[in-house]
Specification:
This protein is of the alpha/beta class. About 45% of the residues lie in helices and about 15% in strands. The structure holds pyridoxal-5'-phosphate. Pyridoxal-5'-phosphate binds near residues 73, 74, 103 and 215.
């Protein structure tokens, strides 16, 4: 068995920047320091970097380049989409639909809007973390101005049926806007706003080996939203503030790498996950699979019964293996995962849950090593 310095299986929390990203960030920081709003040549060079990345993202999403607005990450894109639509269209209605298992960026944006007088319906989920189309159908009404749902769940990898969701929204109320949080799927699974009839879509750079603090919001041309900030008029006044050009260039480089290798990366992630899950189930007893079998290829959530997830996490860390007890946003808080709670998983199974998330950098040898270490550590903890 080879010796590994470090095995990183927390790629849903963040990823290691790829060499292409580091090169692009370095190049722009050293050579292209102009302000894209400046009229001189250095400004134009910076503007070109921004246009280049917006073209890359637009071509992956199969949308127009001028429909991409850069943000400081997924959280800001989601806040901008949800609050921006709600505040701009409140005269038409005050009803928003989301789900109980969304990322806190969406959940807390909705909670903030409740304080502004909006009414939010939270779709429940089944045991696999999926929503019911009948439930959605029953909830869409004349006053519904927005449905905001994620594509891939960050804790379980559950994939929402967005094609059916989009068709249902537009059939029931064509004036309802549809926002997709594609932070966990962009680059990894096909993301096409047109397939889903989505009007807005959020992405983040650091989940695809790009820089932290980078992201973008797709807004279909013709959809009006209120900005969160006011300032110098950048990004057509939708997201003012001098653009993070080096980060944007890094995001473009990372997105290009993913799109050039999409089939290969997908197969690699799927192979790693299958090998990991079958290895764990074969070698460790009393394990509950919390992710659906047909989930995203890079995320799996498992409960190791009679073992505290947090304790196991730290034992694995001592072996150089990095995993997570749930989403990175929860893990420093004491509360139980709202996603697993919504799936009606028992409290003891939630406390013994760990999330493993893979990247194309991981190898089969790493997976086999982790399975071996997991089995040994679980056995030891169960003996105590
Ligand atoms: N949405 C989902 C599904 C996520 O997993 C995350 C991050 O974990 C976010 C939104 C927030 O993205 P960011 O970290 O870029 O703010």
């Amino acid at each position: 068995m080879p010796d590994f310095k470090e095995i990183y299986l927390d790629n849903s929390a963040t990823t290691q920047p790829c060499p292409e990203c580091i090169l692009a960030v370095n190049r722009v920081l050293t050579e292209t320091y102009g302000n894209p709003s400046s009229l001189h040549n250095l400004g134009l060079k910076a503007e070109k970097e921004k246009i280049k990345t917006s073209k890359i993202i637009a071509s992956i999403l199969k949308v127009k380049q001028d429909e991409i607005y850069f943000t400081s990450g997924g959280t800001e894109a989601i806040n901008l989409a949800i609050k921006g639509i709600a505040r701009r269209h409140k005269k038409r209605g005050n009803h928003i639909i989301t789900s109980q298992v969304e990322h806190p960026a969406a959940l807390y944006s909705c909670q903030a809007l409740e304080k502004e007088g909006f009414h939010i319906d939270y779709l429940t989920t089944d045991a696999e973390g999926n929503i019911s189309l009948e439930d959605l159908d029953a909830k869409i009404k004349k006053e519904t101005i927005l449905v905001s749902l994620m594509h891939v769940n960050n804790e379980t990898g559950t994939i929402f049926p967005l094609k059916e969701v989009g068709a249902m929204i537009k059939k029931k109320n064509p004036t309802t806007f549809f926002h997709v949080d594609a932070v966990q799927s962009f680059g990894k699974l096909p993301c096409r706003p047109s397939f889903w009839q989505a009007d807005l879509l959020s992405i983040s750079g650091h989940k695809i080996h790009g820089p932290k603090g980078t992201g973008a919001l797709y807004i279909r041309n013709g959809v009006a939203i209120a900005p969160l900030f006011h300032g110098g008029g950048q990004e057509k006044e939708i997201r003012p503030g001098t653009e993070n050009i080096s980060g944007i260039a890094g995001l473009g480089a990372a997105a290009t790498r993913y799109s050039k290798n999409s089939t290969e990366f997908y197969t690699q992630l799927e192979t790693l996950k299958k090998r990991f899950v079958s290895g764990v189930l074969k070698n460790i007893s009393e394990v509950k699979l919390n992710s659906p079998p047909q989930g995203a290829p890079h995320i799996v959530n498992l409960s190791f019964r009679s073992v505290r997830g947090e304790v196991l996490l730290h034992l694995l860390e001592k072996e150089g293996i990095f995993v997570s007890t749930g989403s990175a946003c929860h893990s420093r808080h004491q509360n139980l995962s709202h996603v697993l709670l919504a799936m009606k998983i028992s409290e003891s199974d939630i406390r013994s849950a760990l999330r493993f998330s893979f990247s194309p950098y991981n190898t089969i040898a790493e997976i086999d090593f982790v399975v071996k270490k997991l089995a040994a550590n679980v056995k030891e903890l169960r003996c105590i």
